[in-house]
Amino acid sequence: MPEEVRIVTRRLHEFPEDSWRIERALDDGAYESARKTITSMTPDEVVAVVKDSGLRGRGGAGFPTGMKWSFVPKDVFPKFIVVNHDEGEPCTFKDRQLAEEDPHQLLEGIAIAAWANQATKAFIYCRGEFALGSRRLDRAINDAYERGFLGKGIFGSDFDLDIILHRGAGAYICGEESALLDSLEGFRGQPRLRPPFPAVKGLYGRPTVVNNTETLSALPSLLENGAEWFRRLGTERSPGTKILSVSGHVNRPANYEVPLGTSLADVLTLAGGMLDGKAPKAIIPGGASAPLLTSTDVAVDFDSLKEAGTMLGSGSIVFMDETTCMVRNALVTLEFFEHESCGKCTPCREGTWWAVKVLERIEHGEGRDEDMDLLIDIANGIDGRAFCPLGDAASWALRSNVKLFRDEFERHVSEGRCPFDGELVGVSGSPARHEGLGGSGTAPQPGAGMPSDAEPEGN
Amino acid sequence: MRHEGAAVEARALSDEQRETALKLVAKYPNPRSAILPLLFLVQSVEGYVTETGMREVAGIIGLEPAQVLATASFYTMLKKAPQGDYLISVCRNIACTHLGGRKVIAALEDRLGVTAGETTEDGKFTLESAECLATCDGAPSLQVNYEDFYRMSAVEAVALVGRLERGEQVTSFRGEAVKSAREISYETAVAGLQAPGTAGELSERTIGGESPRSDTAPGTRPKETGEGSPNA
Fold this sequence. Notes:
The structure holds two protein chains of two kinds. Chain A has three domains: 10-231, Rossmann fold (3-Layer(aba) Sandwich), CATH 3.40.50.11540; 241-320, Roll (Ubiquitin-like (UB roll)), CATH 3.10.20.600; 326-415, Up-down Bundle (de novo design (two linked rop proteins)), CATH 1.20.1440. Helices cover 40% and strands 11% of the residues of chain A. Chain A contains 19 helices and ten strands. Chain A has a four-stranded parallel sheet with strand order 3-2-1-4, with helices on both faces. In chain A, strands 6-5-10-8 form a four-stranded mixed sheet, covered by helices on one side. In chain A, helix 8 links the parallel strand 2 (121-126) and strand 3 (162-167). Chain A starts with 9 loop residues before the first helix and ends in a 44-residue tail after the last helix. Residues 426-459 of chain A have low confidence and may be disordered. By secondary structure, chain B is α+β, with helices and mostly antiparallel strands. Among the domains of chain B are: 15-74, NADH-quinone oxidoreductase subunit E (Arc Repressor Mutant, subunit A, Orthogonal Bundle); 86-180, Glutaredoxin (3-Layer(aba) Sandwich). Chain B is 35% helix and 8% strand. Chain B has a four-stranded mixed sheet, covered by helices on one side. In chain B, a hairpin with a 2-residue loop joins strand 3 and strand 4 (147-149). The longest helix of chain B has 12 residues, at 15-26. Classes of the chains: A alpha/beta, B alpha+beta.
């Protein structure tokens, strides 16, 4: 029977009633790692530990954290730490839990990162929709100031650190680090051209370290126990534990912290297996951006999933059983990317829009024989041509749904209907797109669907 | 405050609220960074981001109103039309859809007599379909004024509307009391304001001054001096 290895999620599991309160966190040893780090280690020594540990960013890209830090120029001030707490990758809910239930671990991690990079100002960019998380972070920050863990001369040292809580306002793209910085500067959240990278020219043009909530939350235990300890968990190239957000057709959807390299089959066992004992038909291994898998016979780590043609991404795993309509899955996924495309570049903005149109007509039984090839063509037109990874991700998800489940797409076309339990109810926040779909959430009326020869308005 | 001449224009914010706005601006090295909190503040007063409010924010930060609109229009939580007292956001994303989330949306549309994206005639409810709310462990899930409700069947969602309609105090899956739309906008606006730390000082030099922002992004980023603003 596989078991979790709870390190970053230990406190919130041990003290589910009040792990977020500073009194409980202090009883449990919170801030001791940061205190020791700041009062007894040089910044270079901290960077070296993080480098040696092989810790890779937990937000999605998996970039080595220590290396990211080492790009920060030493002689330019001020520098900033920016916490990417804009968790929005579909089916990822780990950062939300970390901030809601163990905000002091995050603040302690920020203090360590700030010392290592000699940044005296840190921003937490908290997703706008996270009301409870923001409340808990706000209180945690105030409590930490009161006890001298933030502010002037933290932990009795001569190092100052201020943390500023900043709320987003609803835009997935702001989870992309350069778009996040534009948003934090008060602009539309659109990605920047890189280089220069944020480490060199980031917030307000200053050197900026942008790290994910889970990455920073892993620092207190890492600095407490050392790089060698960290490397004993996980694999050679993917050391440490990772929180996996498991959802979909499983008995116990939740966050599970496991050593990287744990098999996907074991992850499914941890989540209580499939609902009603059904078999998994498709698995999203790393957020909506990740191409699908059809087998659980793979290890969950950065490299194994890459070899399997997909990616670990943010570590969110969705199991789908045989009742799942994969055209619907593709449509929901592409609706998401279409809605969240920032509009800056044409391949992503137009490509996701067209993909949704074609997927809609297939799902509603009005698809054409050539539509599957058309979808692949649309995916190829986005992939590698978009300004930022959002467009690429949309194309990967689209292509993998069509390629792996082409027979299902073809059945929709040949039967002129969705072979699963009714069509996807035509509801959307963008009513214009669904004009003629039969109104308030009912199935489309005959002949009222998207005309198969429709052209987009205004193009 | 540099735009005293704007007194003839309609104001969204009271004097006290303007003080709050200035404190928000003072948190940042660049006043423009306060644009989202200030727009949430406007929303907490006006119910949505009104033109009057955007002009006022432009005056406070030292931008053209069009620049404020350009930013506001990008973000889904900043509403461009009057909203209901309760904003019900139902997740339409992958895990929730596969577990019946769209049926919850359909049931709420029938119950409220609106299509997702619309507000009821009595102004009580706005229904919207939302992208992933990071509550997939509770799929299908929804939020009422950004408080989380897990594992909602169509029947439970409709019952929830009934309780809100009757004015009952409703608490979320996490035990948080549901606030009014204006209260939650205010809370969002002032998040982090109590903490003593700031990233910069409010001064004549930085208000409306040249942005220290990097010019790394392509596209036009004109120097924003606030001069020539209709509020000036």
